Each structure stands twice: as structure tokens, then as C-alpha cells.
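Subject: Sanity check before I submit

Could someone independently write out the C-alpha cells for this chain? I want to compare against mine line by line before I put it in a report. The sequence has 189 residues.
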Amino acid sequence: MKTAGMVLAAGASSRMGRPKALLAGPDGVPLAARQASALREGGCEPVAVVIGSQAAEVRRGLPADTATVENPRWAQGRATSLQAGIAAFPEAEGYLFLPVDAAGVKAGTVRAVLAAAASDPERVWRPVHRGQKGHILWVPRGAARALLGLAAEARVDEWAKPLARELEVEDPAVLRNINTPEEWVELGG
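---
Independent answer below. Compare away.
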């Protein structure tokens, strides 16, 4: 099953003070590129980073081989970034959305979500860790069409709740939401 992997990195990163997509780890690799790599290694194809705020700066700061999808409506709400990713790859059978700030998600976790989706490809899938809802979301093509019709300010989590099946994973990174320089430093960035 062809799943398009989308790193959601269009937000303003106002609490971080600079684009989260460009936060470099100790090896100098930008966070968005690292997240895209985890999606690719986990089995997603194609993989792209959805950008919006400071799009030109973010695009320049990513490795040249990192595909991007620009969301010109990023300021209207998170749903617009998912919609931009879906619209860019209409041929995909599913979409795996990974927020850039869920730093450190393992490729093995991506593989587990894709395996679960293959077992029941009509459902939305959300990994959970120790019963806590993760930030990753797998959406099948049919549900993605419905997602395209959501209002820009719609709460994607609320939309997904009645459709989603949960998959328990041993990866605490699915719970991460890095928003401040202090949280990034604490993570080892």
C-alpha cells in the first residue's frame, strides 16, 4: 500500500523563536530532514515536508534532496497543512502525518503503523504510548477526501476521534511536542 509521509512543519514556531524544521541535532541535520528520513526508512513513499511560515528560509535550510509542499494557508489552521499534503499526492492510498515537533519518532514505529494500516486500510490509525494518544496520524484515501472538506480551523484530533483505531507502541517520541528552546536542549538538541 502506497503511503505518503508528511512532516508537518508549516507553523510559526513562535515559542521556539525560530523554525522548528531547522533545529539542528548534534550532527547538524535539521529536525524536519530527520523526521522525513524516519518516514522514508519506515516505508513511506513519497515523503515531503509541509512548510508555510518562513517557507523560503525553511526550504533553503533543508538538504537539497528534501521534498517540500508549501501551504500558503498555514496561518488559518493546522487542518490546512494536512489538506496541502493530501492535495500534493492524490494518488496515495494513505497518508502518515508526523508533526515536526514529535522529535525522535523511530522508523520502526512508522513501520508498525503502516503494518496496522495494511491490516485494516479503511480506518484512521493513531499510535499511543502507555495509553496516551500520540501525535502521529495515518489516514486512508477515503477519509482523506473527507479531511479535504474540513474547515481550516477545524480540530483534526476531534475529526479523527470517532474514526481512529489506536495502536500501542513502545516509542515515547509519539507523545512529544517540542515547543521551546529549553525543551529542545533537554531533548539533547
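---
OP: Matches mine. For the report I'm noting this point. The two ends are 34 Å apart (CA to CA).
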